[in-house]
Amino acid sequence: MPKTSARLLSLLSLLQARRDWPGALLAERLDVSPRTVRRDVDRLRELGYPVVAMKGPDGGYRLDAGTELPPLLFDDEQAVALAVALQIATTTGAGIEEAAARALNTVRQVLPARLRHRVDTLRVTAVDRPAIRPEPQVDSDVLMAIGATVHGREVLRFDYSPVSGPARATAGTSQGCEGTPAAPSGSAALPGSPTGALPQTPRHTDPAPPPPRRVEPHHLVTWGRRWYLVAWDLDRDDWRTFRADRITPRTPTGPRFPPRELPGGSVAAFITARFRGGEATEGPDGVGGWPCRGEVILALPAAEVLRHTREGIVEELGPDRCRVVLGSWSWPGLAAAIGRFDADIEVIGPPELASAFVHLATRYAAAAQPRATPDP
To answer: What's the confidence (pLDDT) of residue 185?
Structure first.
Protein backbone atom coordinates (compact mmCIF):
# COMPACT_ATOMS: atom_id res chain seq x y z
CA MET A 1 0.00 0.00 0.00
CA PRO A 2 1.41 3.43 -0.85
CA LYS A 3 2.65 5.36 2.17
CA THR A 4 0.13 8.19 1.77
CA SER A 5 -2.85 5.80 1.60
CA ALA A 6 -1.66 3.91 4.65
CA ARG A 7 -1.27 7.18 6.53
CA LEU A 8 -4.80 8.27 5.56
CA LEU A 9 -6.23 5.03 6.93
CA SER A 10 -4.28 5.49 10.15
CA LEU A 11 -5.54 9.07 10.44
CA LEU A 12 -9.13 7.96 9.85
CA SER A 13 -8.79 5.24 12.46
CA LEU A 14 -7.52 7.78 15.02
CA LEU A 15 -10.34 10.21 14.27
CA GLN A 16 -12.88 7.41 14.83
CA ALA A 17 -11.30 6.38 18.14
CA ARG A 18 -12.06 9.61 20.05
CA ARG A 19 -14.12 12.73 19.58
CA ASP A 20 -11.50 15.50 19.52
CA TRP A 21 -7.86 15.35 18.49
CA PRO A 22 -5.33 18.19 18.92
CA GLY A 23 -3.41 18.68 15.70
CA ALA A 24 -0.03 18.37 17.41
CA LEU A 25 -1.03 15.05 18.99
CA LEU A 26 -2.18 13.67 15.62
CA ALA A 27 1.12 14.69 14.07
CA GLU A 28 2.98 12.96 16.90
CA ARG A 29 0.95 9.75 16.60
CA LEU A 30 1.42 9.63 12.81
CA ASP A 31 5.08 10.73 13.01
CA VAL A 32 4.55 13.52 10.48
CA SER A 33 4.51 17.32 10.53
CA PRO A 34 1.39 19.37 11.34
CA ARG A 35 1.41 20.55 7.74
CA THR A 36 1.17 16.94 6.51
CA VAL A 37 -1.76 16.37 8.87
CA ARG A 38 -3.57 19.36 7.35
CA ARG A 39 -3.01 18.00 3.83
CA ASP A 40 -4.23 14.53 4.84
CA VAL A 41 -7.34 16.04 6.44
CA ASP A 42 -8.08 17.82 3.16
CA ARG A 43 -7.77 14.49 1.30
CA LEU A 44 -10.23 12.86 3.70
CA ARG A 45 -12.68 15.69 3.09
CA GLU A 46 -12.39 15.12 -0.65
CA LEU A 47 -13.33 11.47 -0.05
CA GLY A 48 -16.50 12.51 1.78
CA TYR A 49 -15.40 12.38 5.42
CA PRO A 50 -16.71 15.43 7.33
CA VAL A 51 -13.57 16.36 9.29
CA VAL A 52 -14.14 19.61 11.19
CA ALA A 53 -11.28 21.87 12.24
CA MET A 54 -11.47 23.18 15.83
CA LYS A 55 -10.25 26.61 16.78
CA GLY A 56 -8.20 27.27 19.86
CA PRO A 57 -4.64 27.74 21.10
CA ASP A 58 -3.56 24.35 19.77
CA GLY A 59 -6.24 23.69 17.17
CA GLY A 60 -7.48 20.24 16.35
CA TYR A 61 -9.81 18.05 14.33
CA ARG A 62 -13.04 16.16 14.82
CA LEU A 63 -14.80 13.58 12.63
CA ASP A 64 -18.28 15.06 12.46
CA ALA A 65 -21.58 13.57 11.28
CA GLY A 66 -22.33 14.08 7.60
CA THR A 67 -25.33 13.96 5.31
CA GLU A 68 -24.13 10.77 3.64
CA LEU A 69 -22.48 7.65 5.00
CA PRO A 70 -18.86 7.62 3.83
CA PRO A 71 -16.78 4.44 3.70
CA LEU A 72 -16.26 3.01 7.18
CA LEU A 73 -13.06 1.60 8.59
CA PHE A 74 -13.13 -1.44 10.89
CA ASP A 75 -10.31 -3.46 12.32
CA ASP A 76 -10.53 -7.27 12.24
CA GLU A 77 -12.19 -7.67 15.64
CA GLN A 78 -14.72 -4.91 14.95
CA ALA A 79 -15.73 -6.44 11.62
CA VAL A 80 -16.30 -9.89 13.14
CA ALA A 81 -18.21 -8.39 16.11
CA LEU A 82 -20.44 -6.43 13.74
CA ALA A 83 -21.21 -9.54 11.67
CA VAL A 84 -22.11 -11.57 14.78
CA ALA A 85 -24.29 -8.77 16.16
CA LEU A 86 -26.22 -8.48 12.90
CA GLN A 87 -26.82 -12.24 12.81
CA ILE A 88 -28.41 -12.29 16.28
CA ALA A 89 -30.46 -9.13 15.68
CA THR A 90 -33.53 -11.33 15.06
CA THR A 91 -33.80 -11.93 18.82
CA THR A 92 -33.93 -8.27 19.83
CA GLY A 93 -37.69 -7.83 19.38
CA ALA A 94 -37.09 -4.47 17.72
CA GLY A 95 -38.53 -5.39 14.31
CA ILE A 96 -35.22 -4.89 12.47
CA GLU A 97 -34.70 -8.43 11.17
CA GLU A 98 -34.88 -7.58 7.46
CA ALA A 99 -32.74 -4.46 7.84
CA ALA A 100 -30.14 -6.43 9.81
CA ALA A 101 -29.96 -9.10 7.09
CA ARG A 102 -29.44 -6.45 4.41
CA ALA A 103 -26.80 -4.72 6.50
CA LEU A 104 -24.95 -8.00 6.98
CA ASN A 105 -24.89 -8.60 3.24
CA THR A 106 -23.60 -5.06 2.67
CA VAL A 107 -20.82 -5.46 5.24
CA ARG A 108 -19.85 -8.86 3.90
CA GLN A 109 -19.46 -7.58 0.34
CA VAL A 110 -16.88 -4.96 1.32
CA LEU A 111 -14.87 -7.13 3.70
CA PRO A 112 -11.41 -8.28 2.63
CA ALA A 113 -11.21 -11.91 1.61
CA ARG A 114 -9.53 -13.01 4.84
CA LEU A 115 -12.22 -11.36 6.98
CA ARG A 116 -15.04 -12.55 4.74
CA HIS A 117 -13.81 -16.10 5.26
CA ARG A 118 -13.80 -15.64 9.07
CA VAL A 119 -17.34 -14.25 9.00
CA ASP A 120 -18.60 -17.02 6.73
CA THR A 121 -17.19 -19.70 9.03
CA LEU A 122 -18.97 -18.11 11.99
CA ARG A 123 -22.58 -18.61 10.97
CA VAL A 124 -24.89 -18.07 13.91
CA THR A 125 -28.48 -19.31 13.99
CA ALA A 126 -30.48 -17.24 16.45
CA VAL A 127 -33.33 -19.30 17.92
CA ASP A 128 -35.86 -17.89 20.36
CA ARG A 129 -37.17 -20.09 23.12
CA PRO A 130 -40.74 -21.22 22.38
CA ALA A 131 -43.48 -18.99 23.73
CA ILE A 132 -47.19 -19.52 24.25
CA ARG A 133 -47.89 -16.41 22.21
CA PRO A 134 -45.63 -14.26 20.06
CA GLU A 135 -43.73 -11.53 21.85
CA PRO A 136 -44.85 -8.04 20.82
CA GLN A 137 -42.63 -6.24 18.36
CA VAL A 138 -41.61 -2.66 19.00
CA ASP A 139 -41.74 -0.10 16.22
CA SER A 140 -38.19 1.06 15.57
CA ASP A 141 -39.48 4.65 15.24
CA VAL A 142 -40.82 4.42 18.79
CA LEU A 143 -37.45 3.18 20.05
CA MET A 144 -35.73 6.04 18.26
CA ALA A 145 -38.14 8.58 19.75
CA ILE A 146 -37.65 7.21 23.26
CA GLY A 147 -33.90 7.01 22.81
CA ALA A 148 -33.78 10.64 21.66
CA THR A 149 -35.47 11.84 24.86
CA VAL A 150 -33.16 9.68 26.99
CA HIS A 151 -30.14 11.14 25.21
CA GLY A 152 -31.43 14.71 25.32
CA ARG A 153 -32.72 14.40 28.91
CA GLU A 154 -36.10 15.76 27.87
CA VAL A 155 -39.41 15.03 29.58
CA LEU A 156 -41.33 12.43 27.56
CA ARG A 157 -45.11 12.58 27.16
CA PHE A 158 -46.79 9.43 25.88
CA ASP A 159 -50.00 7.42 25.77
CA TYR A 160 -49.79 4.01 27.43
CA SER A 161 -52.05 1.37 25.92
CA PRO A 162 -53.67 -1.29 28.15
CA VAL A 163 -52.38 -4.85 28.19
CA SER A 164 -55.58 -6.25 26.68
CA GLY A 165 -55.72 -3.55 24.02
CA PRO A 166 -53.63 -3.08 20.90
CA ALA A 167 -49.90 -3.30 21.23
CA ARG A 168 -49.58 0.38 20.39
CA ALA A 169 -52.12 3.14 20.07
CA THR A 170 -52.49 5.19 16.95
CA ALA A 171 -50.33 8.27 17.02
CA GLY A 172 -52.10 11.27 18.47
CA THR A 173 -54.77 9.29 20.33
CA SER A 174 -55.09 8.17 23.94
CA GLN A 175 -55.87 4.74 25.24
CA GLY A 176 -57.51 3.73 28.52
CA CYS A 177 -55.34 3.11 31.55
CA GLU A 178 -54.50 -0.41 32.54
CA GLY A 179 -57.33 -1.78 34.72
CA THR A 180 -60.01 0.62 33.55
CA PRO A 181 -63.40 -1.18 33.94
CA ALA A 182 -65.35 -1.87 30.79
CA ALA A 183 -68.50 0.12 30.12
CA PRO A 184 -71.83 -1.75 30.63
CA SER A 185 -73.25 -3.32 27.48
CA GLY A 186 -76.86 -2.57 28.33
CA SER A 187 -79.41 -1.87 31.07
CA ALA A 188 -81.88 -4.14 32.85
CA ALA A 189 -85.45 -3.19 33.89
CA LEU A 190 -85.35 -0.58 36.58
CA PRO A 191 -87.06 -1.33 39.88
CA GLY A 192 -90.44 0.43 40.10
CA SER A 193 -91.01 0.66 36.34
CA PRO A 194 -94.62 0.33 35.18
CA THR A 195 -95.56 -3.12 33.87
CA GLY A 196 -94.84 -3.38 30.16
CA ALA A 197 -93.04 -0.07 30.09
CA LEU A 198 -89.53 0.03 28.74
CA PRO A 199 -87.03 1.68 31.04
CA GLN A 200 -85.10 4.67 29.88
CA THR A 201 -81.73 3.47 28.64
CA PRO A 202 -79.03 5.88 29.65
CA ARG A 203 -76.98 7.29 26.81
CA HIS A 204 -73.69 5.46 26.53
CA THR A 205 -70.73 7.77 26.76
CA ASP A 206 -67.16 6.64 26.43
CA PRO A 207 -65.00 7.35 29.46
CA ALA A 208 -62.72 10.30 29.10
CA PRO A 209 -59.29 9.26 27.84
CA PRO A 210 -56.61 9.39 30.48
CA PRO A 211 -54.08 12.19 30.32
CA PRO A 212 -50.71 11.33 28.83
CA ARG A 213 -48.02 10.03 31.13
CA ARG A 214 -45.20 12.44 31.93
CA VAL A 215 -41.82 10.97 32.81
CA GLU A 216 -38.14 11.78 32.95
CA PRO A 217 -36.68 9.00 30.76
CA HIS A 218 -33.37 7.62 31.98
CA HIS A 219 -32.68 4.26 30.31
CA LEU A 220 -33.99 2.14 27.44
CA VAL A 221 -33.31 -1.52 28.31
CA THR A 222 -34.08 -5.02 27.06
CA TRP A 223 -35.19 -7.87 29.32
CA GLY A 224 -36.47 -11.22 28.12
CA ARG A 225 -36.74 -10.04 24.49
CA ARG A 226 -38.89 -7.08 25.51
CA TRP A 227 -37.97 -3.41 25.55
CA TYR A 228 -38.59 -1.29 28.64
CA LEU A 229 -38.23 2.36 29.52
CA VAL A 230 -36.87 3.13 33.00
CA ALA A 231 -38.11 6.55 33.99
CA TRP A 232 -39.05 8.82 36.87
CA ASP A 233 -42.83 9.26 36.80
CA LEU A 234 -43.55 12.95 37.44
CA ASP A 235 -47.21 12.37 38.38
CA ARG A 236 -46.54 9.42 40.74
CA ASP A 237 -43.27 10.78 42.11
CA ASP A 238 -41.53 7.40 41.85
CA TRP A 239 -39.43 5.24 39.55
CA ARG A 240 -41.39 3.20 37.00
CA THR A 241 -40.71 0.76 34.16
CA PHE A 242 -42.85 0.91 31.01
CA ARG A 243 -43.10 -1.58 28.17
CA ALA A 244 -41.96 0.13 25.00
CA ASP A 245 -44.45 -1.75 22.78
CA ARG A 246 -47.29 -0.05 24.68
CA ILE A 247 -45.84 3.46 24.40
CA THR A 248 -47.03 6.04 21.86
CA PRO A 249 -44.81 9.11 22.19
CA ARG A 250 -46.39 12.54 21.97
CA THR A 251 -44.84 15.68 20.55
CA PRO A 252 -43.49 18.08 21.45
CA THR A 253 -41.35 16.76 24.25
CA GLY A 254 -41.12 18.54 27.57
CA PRO A 255 -38.33 20.58 29.14
CA ARG A 256 -34.86 19.27 29.91
CA PHE A 257 -34.19 17.83 33.34
CA PRO A 258 -31.13 17.07 35.48
CA PRO A 259 -30.46 13.32 35.81
CA ARG A 260 -31.48 11.56 39.03
CA GLU A 261 -29.53 8.83 40.77
CA LEU A 262 -31.01 5.44 39.97
CA PRO A 263 -31.67 3.13 42.97
CA GLY A 264 -29.10 0.37 43.22
CA GLY A 265 -26.38 2.40 41.53
CA SER A 266 -26.82 0.87 38.06
CA VAL A 267 -29.60 0.19 35.60
CA ALA A 268 -28.78 -3.55 35.66
CA ALA A 269 -29.25 -3.75 39.44
CA PHE A 270 -32.42 -1.67 39.31
CA ILE A 271 -34.18 -3.56 36.52
CA THR A 272 -33.20 -6.96 37.95
CA ALA A 273 -34.58 -6.02 41.35
CA ARG A 274 -37.79 -4.65 39.83
CA PHE A 275 -38.57 -7.89 38.03
CA ARG A 276 -37.73 -9.91 41.14
CA GLY A 277 -39.98 -7.76 43.29
CA GLY A 278 -37.21 -6.66 45.66
CA GLU A 279 -34.97 -3.70 46.29
CA ALA A 280 -32.10 -2.77 44.01
CA THR A 281 -29.43 -3.77 46.52
CA GLU A 282 -26.77 -6.46 46.52
CA GLY A 283 -26.15 -8.26 49.79
CA PRO A 284 -22.98 -10.01 50.94
CA ASP A 285 -24.47 -13.36 49.91
CA GLY A 286 -24.64 -12.38 46.24
CA VAL A 287 -28.43 -12.79 45.99
CA GLY A 288 -29.43 -9.17 46.44
CA GLY A 289 -32.64 -8.00 44.81
CA TRP A 290 -34.78 -10.96 45.90
CA PRO A 291 -37.39 -10.16 48.55
CA CYS A 292 -36.87 -13.60 50.17
CA ARG A 293 -33.40 -15.01 50.88
CA GLY A 294 -32.63 -18.16 52.82
CA GLU A 295 -29.80 -20.47 53.82
CA VAL A 296 -29.83 -24.28 53.98
CA ILE A 297 -27.47 -27.24 54.11
CA LEU A 298 -27.99 -29.86 51.41
CA ALA A 299 -26.81 -33.46 51.55
CA LEU A 300 -25.19 -33.19 48.13
CA PRO A 301 -21.69 -32.46 46.82
CA ALA A 302 -21.15 -28.77 46.08
CA ALA A 303 -20.11 -29.55 42.50
CA GLU A 304 -23.47 -31.20 41.79
CA VAL A 305 -25.44 -28.25 43.23
CA LEU A 306 -23.36 -25.72 41.28
CA ARG A 307 -24.40 -27.29 37.97
CA HIS A 308 -27.99 -26.23 38.64
CA THR A 309 -27.46 -22.92 40.46
CA ARG A 310 -27.07 -19.76 38.39
CA GLU A 311 -26.75 -17.33 41.31
CA GLY A 312 -26.37 -17.24 45.06
CA ILE A 313 -23.51 -19.03 46.77
CA VAL A 314 -22.62 -22.69 47.26
CA GLU A 315 -20.00 -23.54 49.90
CA GLU A 316 -18.51 -27.00 50.25
CA LEU A 317 -18.79 -28.44 53.78
CA GLY A 318 -17.63 -31.97 53.01
CA PRO A 319 -17.69 -34.61 50.28
CA ASP A 320 -21.50 -34.89 50.45
CA ARG A 321 -22.61 -31.68 52.18
CA CYS A 322 -22.74 -28.04 51.11
CA ARG A 323 -24.14 -24.72 52.31
CA VAL A 324 -26.48 -22.99 49.86
CA VAL A 325 -27.79 -19.41 49.94
CA LEU A 326 -30.52 -18.61 47.42
CA GLY A 327 -33.22 -16.02 46.83
CA SER A 328 -36.73 -16.00 45.36
CA TRP A 329 -39.85 -13.85 45.05
CA SER A 330 -41.71 -15.76 47.81
CA TRP A 331 -40.92 -18.15 50.65
CA PRO A 332 -42.89 -21.07 49.11
CA GLY A 333 -41.12 -20.39 45.82
CA LEU A 334 -37.74 -20.50 47.55
CA ALA A 335 -38.64 -23.73 49.39
CA ALA A 336 -39.78 -25.33 46.13
CA ALA A 337 -36.56 -24.26 44.38
CA ILE A 338 -34.46 -25.86 47.12
CA GLY A 339 -36.62 -29.00 47.17
CA ARG A 340 -35.87 -29.71 43.51
CA PHE A 341 -32.37 -30.90 44.46
CA ASP A 342 -33.92 -34.13 45.85
CA ALA A 343 -31.70 -34.31 48.93
CA ASP A 344 -32.01 -34.04 52.70
CA ILE A 345 -32.37 -30.41 53.76
CA GLU A 346 -31.33 -28.64 56.96
CA VAL A 347 -32.78 -25.14 57.24
CA ILE A 348 -30.37 -22.60 58.74
CA GLY A 349 -32.74 -19.66 58.42
CA PRO A 350 -34.76 -17.60 58.48
CA PRO A 351 -37.87 -19.01 60.24
CA GLU A 352 -40.07 -18.00 57.30
CA LEU A 353 -38.24 -20.51 55.11
CA ALA A 354 -38.86 -23.32 57.61
CA SER A 355 -42.56 -22.39 57.73
CA ALA A 356 -42.69 -22.47 53.93
CA PHE A 357 -41.36 -26.06 53.95
CA VAL A 358 -44.11 -27.04 56.41
CA HIS A 359 -46.71 -25.36 54.21
CA LEU A 360 -45.49 -27.16 51.08
CA ALA A 361 -45.26 -30.49 52.90
CA THR A 362 -48.90 -30.23 53.94
CA ARG A 363 -49.96 -29.28 50.43
CA TYR A 364 -47.95 -32.07 48.80
CA ALA A 365 -49.26 -34.64 51.26
CA ALA A 366 -52.82 -33.61 50.47
CA ALA A 367 -52.11 -33.82 46.76
CA ALA A 368 -50.82 -37.38 47.16
CA GLN A 369 -54.05 -38.60 48.79
CA PRO A 370 -56.42 -40.48 46.43
CA ARG A 371 -59.55 -38.57 45.63
CA ALA A 372 -62.93 -40.12 46.41
CA THR A 373 -64.77 -41.21 43.26
CA PRO A 374 -68.22 -39.62 43.10
CA ASP A 375 -71.20 -41.95 42.91
CA PRO A 376 -72.61 -42.38 39.38
So the answer is: 31
